[in-house]
Design brief:
five-stranded mixed β-sheet, 103 residues, Alpha-Beta Plaits, Peptidase_Prp_sf, ribosome biogenesis, single chain, alpha+beta, 40% helix
C-alpha cells in the first residue's frame, strides 16, 4: 500500500511524505502506482522549477518528502492541488492508497 502523510500547521501544508508500493498489479502494470507517480512527478517538477528556494525535496527509492521551508500562497495552491489529486486516487483505490492528514 502507498501511504501519504500530510502535515498541516495553521491550515497550511508543511510536509508531505509518500512511501510504499500500491501492489495493485505486477511491476510495470500497476495503474495505481503509475497514477500516483505521474501526479507526484509533475508536482515535484513544478515545485523544483517554480519554488525551489521554498521547499526541500527528497526523492529516495521508496520515499518522497516535500518539506516547506518558506511559506508562499502560490506554493500552498500547488500543494493543495497535489493533495486534491492524491485524494482522488485514494477515493478510487482505498485498498492500495491511504492518506493521513495530521493537523
Amino acid at each position: 500500500m502507498v501511504q501519504a502523510k500530510v502535515t498541516f500547521r495553521e491550515q497550511t501544508i508543511q510536509l508531505i511524505e509518500i512511501t510504499g508500493h500500491a501492489e495493485a498489479g505486477e511491476f510495470g502494470n500497476d495503474l495505481v502506482c503509475a497514477g500516483i507517480t505521474a501526479i507526484v512527478s509533475g508536482a515535484l517538477n513544478g515545485l523544483d522549477l517554480l519554488h525551489h528556494s521554498k521547499v526541500k525535496l527528497t526523492v529516495l527509492e521508496n520515499q518522497i518528502i516535500i518539506k516547506v521551508i518558506k511559506q508562499d500562497s502560490d506554493l500552498q495552491k500547488l500543494l493543495q492541488f497535489l493533495l486534491i489529486q492524491l485524494q482522488t486516487i485514494n477515493v478510487q483505490y482505498p485498498k492500495n492508497f491511504a492518506i493521513e492528514e495530521v493537523l
